[in-house]
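#random but structural
TW: two for the price of one
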Amino acid sequence: MCFITIIYKFLLVLIFVVDTWPVFQSPMKVTSYFPFSYQWPVVMGQHVVIMTIVCTYQLVPCTKGCSEEIRRGSLERHLTETCPKRIVNCEYCKRKGAHKLIRSKNHLDECPDLPITCGECNQAMPRHLHNETCPKAMISCVGCNIVLKREDLEKHNEESMKEHLDIAMKKIDALQHSHKVFMLPDYTKKKEEGEDWCSPHFYTSPGGYKMLLRVRPNGDGSCKGTHVSCFIYLKAGVYDDRLEWPFQGEVTIELLNQLEDKNHWEDTLLFDESTDVDCKQRDSTDGWGKPNFISLSALEYDATKNFQYLKDDSLYFRVNVKATSIRQSQFKPWLVTSVDI
């Protein structure tokens, strides 16, 4: 009997078994009897059986994507012990991440709990504790931003007390004084059409009063057609309930020289007892200002004094505010939001 005949009879018997035994109604996986690795479909009657043979020596790619190929039987050990992308915890700070990252120089150079020995004071302790206490560490002075050793800070503070106080006073003064610069575009069109221009809203200081500048390019009232008129309006602000009303202070409006930083035109508005009460209240519909702020003829270029307020059909205004009605006891800087910037 030839080999082909034997194979043919074997397949007939196998087809009969598959058609009659329930165990063969689903795919069959064989892993214990063959030392090689293949996968192929075998047609048996009305069924297709996928026979999978697994070899433990077959090279397979790492399932974590480290680009290595490992024998199938060693894959689990690779994933838990040697794969550079396996997840581990830093033994010092307990941060979780890929082994390659956690054991890298970048992480160890920044790990806050890594024990280090200071080259300056020779003390050994976790990095974050040492950075906060090392007497040789270079730090910035809060009062003046000078950089010095921590051990010298106390002496520096004692010797520079007056300087620190002066700097603090200037910062407090800056909170009370605020200046904003605004550009009025298309001056000619607004002047000819009698159109008003309003600046964006601004705050007098962090946590202060909210205002806007209104400009009438062709003048207001009796000054119409001869002057530029400027007015300040108080608007409803975030901190109105904490502020004193009516508003009191000084508002200086400057029309800036566009040729050099001098010869600016300015006028100061006083908000005091003589000011109309309606102009000093929150969200006022009445403005306080100067109808005759500057004559139209003064806007043009003056060669003798080298100033030009109207240039490229635009005017630039700067508004400086000193609010005297804000009580410092009411000012809470930690509650100031970005709307005040």
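TW: number two ↓
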Amino acid sequence: MSDAFEELAGLWARRDALDEAEWTRLHALVMAELAAAPPGEEFDAVLSRENASAWRDSFFADKVLMPAIRGNAAMSRELTRGGLRVFYRNYLRDQLRKIGRRREVQGYEGAEDNVPDAVNHNPAFIDPSASIQASTDLTCPIDDSDGDRDGNPLQASAIAFMRGAENWVVVYLALHFCGGRDRLPLSKVHQQFQIPSYHYKARQLGIAPPRGGFESFSEFGETMIGQWLSTNGIELDEDNIEAIRQAFDRLCLAAFHEARDRGLAEVAGMGGMPA
């Protein structure tokens, strides 16, 4: 085996125990392997939706990162030469089939082009039977005039969550997830703040669902935001969408203030963020 493949196979085998630096290295090795000999299905996928790097990032997050985070007992540990490309090809085939089915349901060719990218979804509308029906225009109607801001238990929890969060969590929420139509793309946030392993960090946070959406409430519940909701007694259930949306509003308000307090809003040039 080449040195690069030997390193890749070694990291692959123990990816449920990697630290952040090792995850960053694994991501780089996987991207290099996929770019070296992209399958024909990638060309079809790019024609259908997005650029190649976005599909490769989604594959990494869905099929490499998430099984390790979930502690999936069936997670493959042995990687053979060429095996990664086979996994990626099969992943693309599956996604292309899903795109085709969605177009059939929508009733016209090109309907998928009007469906927002799963990376840009927020999980405000979760339907286990249809993955995520995501809102792409989340706004934060609460402002500083809300006298309950520091007295409301949920708002207090949101403030504590944000104050204890790393900078990347704050900017992902304030500048991307909560930004409505003016939000920055994840890639732009990554470029401005130099966030390593940005795509699968977004997946861990819960703002970048797997391609096609979270398959169940329990899957979203494993993310950082999902765990925060559960900690506050908010059930992740189809009938509880309004409570989830209200919680997101509280979390977004806290994220906006925390970004301002840390000077992150100014760094991003987002002086127009809600006060």
